[in-house]
Amino acid sequence: MPELARRSLLLGLSAAALSACVSRPVSVPGAPADRPFPKVLSRRDRITRTVVGLRPFRPQGFRLEAEAFGEKTVIHNYGHGGCGVTLSWGTCQRAAVMAGEAGRLDVAVLGGGVMGLTSALILARRGHDVTVYADVMHPNTTSNVAGALWLPSSLYDRDVASEDFLRLNWQVTREAHRGFLPYVNRPGYGVSWVHHSEVSERVREPRWALPGGDDLYPGLEVLTAQTRFGFAYEERYHTLMIDPDYYLDMLMKDAQLAGARFVSWRFETLDELLALPEPVIVNCTGLGAAKLFADETLIPIRGQLSHLLPQPEIDYSYTGWGNGGSLYMFPRKTGLVLGGSHGRGDVSMDVSEEELTRMVDGHAALAERAAFSTSASNQAISGLFSGA
Ligand SMILES: Cc1cc2nc3c(=O)[nH]c(=O)nc-3n(C[C@H](O)[C@H](O)[C@H](O)COP(=O)(O)OP(=O)(O)OC[C@H]3O[C@@H](n4cnc5c(N)ncnc54)[C@H](O)[C@@H]3O)c2cc1C
């Protein structure tokens, strides 16, 4: 896949970003004189758990719109692919405004993942009488499986998404970022800044803006020397890490405190759903919308994450390419998260031993690579990283 197409798929770049290619020259001299990076100890005997989840992906991007069913209004808010946590405050705020426009107080929120919980909280705080209906609740939703770095990725296919969607996505991304800022370092919420590196073997010249605009990523540096792991190219910046185990817990408590009620329920048919007493329904069912609303465009993208024992000295994250696929590492207080698998259309929830080996070995090789400081040294082990 060409580099631009691959990256736009991985990072969900918008038309606005693409049309606003940043002509700023790649900086080479004066690259940061960082201390050496502490190494990730990527070994099987350090794995505490391996989890699998299915990203709710739509090639044309998320669905955010109102649909009338007789006297009922359904506000769709699903299909956020690999960045539902990232976009939650953006699309949920807009969904809540749409629900308010329906002019009724009672609102049903369908779904107890990050979209359902955020929607419920916003609606309850806006004075609505909110009931959340969900088959699976926190801590067992796909949202609990997420990485979850604040970075739009695996959100749409560039050749399918419309210009209107790309413009909307650009705005929603900015609103979503603003929504998270009040939570940074708030005790118990698991939201903090992390110094993130996106590395690749191909120099992006000209480069294009990061999703939502470069200004959302403080401390942005573009490097072609002294890069992390000695790759040819690096974009290094600060972004947010969200630990879903903490964050979703607090979100649910906040929604309850604001007055939202929670009902455990699985809807098998649309008719069953439309029989709810609430005149307005906010649909945050993620992949569940495929069956409930006959949305055939929804595609699961399987992801597998291995959690390692904590390494408090690791205060950086990375996304890169190696060992036959993408690789990323996010540090949490509770441990390091290794990921990077994207199985489009794959619905298997079993742990793949093959993928586990690819990841553990791939991250271990990256960690070794960190020990080398010259590009000549890196060439010696570059076989593992062809395709980067
Ligand atoms: C491996 C992996 C890594 C990821 N990493 C990141 C990341 O780094 N950053 C990021 O932002 N995002 C990431 N994501 C994506 C993110 O997890 C999803 O986009 C997000 O969880 C979608 O949230 P949701 O609330 O729409 O869906 P879900 O969390 O799936 O919640 C859907 C809810 O709807 C309910 N529901 C569905 N159907 C029915 C029904 N018929 N009746 C009743 N209830 C129903 C479910 O029970 C559930 O409560 C990752 C995902 C995976 C799998």
User: Radius of gyration from the CA trace?
Assistant: 21 Å
Biggest sheet overview: 9 strands, mixed
- Indicate the overall shape: globular
Number of helices: 11
Low-confidence stretches: 1-34, 372-388
In terms of DSSP E residues, the strand content is: 25-35%
Secondary-structure content class = alpha/beta
As an assembly, this protein is single chain
Write down the CATH class of the largest domain.
Answer: Alpha Beta
Mean pLDDT score: 88
- How many structural domains in the coordinates? 2
List each distinct ligand once.
Answer: flavin-adenine dinucleotide
Give the full name of the CATH homologous superfamily of the largest domain: D-Amino Acid Oxidase, subunit A, domain 2
CATH topology description of the largest domain: D-Amino Acid Oxidase, Chain A, domain 2
Descriptive key words:
Rossmann fold; disordered N terminus; D-Amino Acid Oxidase, Chain A, domain 2; binds flavin-adenine dinucleotide; globular; 388 residues; 2 domains; disordered C terminus; single chain; alpha/beta; nine-stranded mixed sheet
Task: Give a nutshell description of this structure.
The protein is of the alpha/beta class. The protein has helices spanning 3-11, 15-19, 84-101, 114-125, 142-145, 163-180, 244-257, 270-274, 289-292, 353-369, 375-379, and strands at 47-57, 63-69, 72-78, 106-112, 129-137, 191-200, 221-223, 233-242, 261-264, 280-283, 299-308, 316-322, 325-332, 335-339, 343-344. Helix 3 packs across helix 4 (114-125) and helix 3 (84-101) crosses helix 6.
